[in-house]
Design a protein that fits this description.
mainly alpha; Tetracycline Repressor, domain 2
Length: 196
């Protein structure tokens, strides 16, 4: 019977491989279809059982938290940083709003974050908090510079972004050219007298 029981080293290697396979499958599924993809599909793509996801990650929230950096957070925080580097407040808010709508179009998982689909995830709620702070920062600067209509607030931007998230999540995906045209209409509608 020697060798019938796997060694601890072998079990650890198998466990590590399972974790990486699950992570890769989850990233692909969440980026393509959002955070609500059935775990059975993630397990199937990873070549493991659904029980293995629960054993390794504790369930959906643990799995989301293990991959949300790669799925959404890294890109979101990168474009927030790029926005902060733009000197002109009007160009800054136009860049920011365009980047948000672009990420919403390309990444269904971002809409799940915005809609707080999983409020029990501390990481998702932290992403929402950081996004809200960026909204307030960029709106305040653009209003002070006269680049936005004076009555346009951070709450208005939040509502527009949430409306867009709901439309993208529950409706048909519009053609990209039509979507980008609507982004331009939105920007035109909120620009102030000092906007270029």
């Amino acid at each position: 019977m020697a060798g019938a029981v796997p060694s601890q080293a072998r079990l650890r290697a198998d466990a590590r491989r399972n974790v990486e396979q699950i992570r890769a499958a989850a990233i692909g599924a969440f980026q393509g279809r959002g955070l609500t993809v059935p775990l059975e599909e993630v397990a199937r793509a990873a070549g493991v059982s659904k029980a293995t996801i629960f054993n390794r990650f504790g369930g959906r929230i643990g799995l989301i938290e293990a991959v949300i950096e790669e799925v959404v957070a890294r890109e979101l925080f990168a474009f927030i940083d790029r926005t902060r580097a733009i000197g002109d407040a009007g160009e800054r808010i136009a860049h920011y709003l365009t980047a948000i709508r672009d990420l919403q179009y390309r990444q269904p998982a971002f809409n799940d974050v915005l809609l707080q689909t999983y409020p029990h995830s501390p990481q998702l709620m932290e992403i929402c908090r950081a996004g809200s702070e960026a909204n307030e920062e960029f709106i305040a600067a653009a209003r002070a510079a006269g680049a936005l209509r004076p009555e346009f607030t951070a709450d208005d931007l939040h509502a527009l972004v949430i409306d867009n998230a709901l439309a993208l999540k529950h409706g048909p995906l519009p053609p990209r050219d039509a979507y980008d045209r609507r982004t331009r209409y939105l920007l035109d509608g909120i620009r102030g007298p000092a906007a270029p």
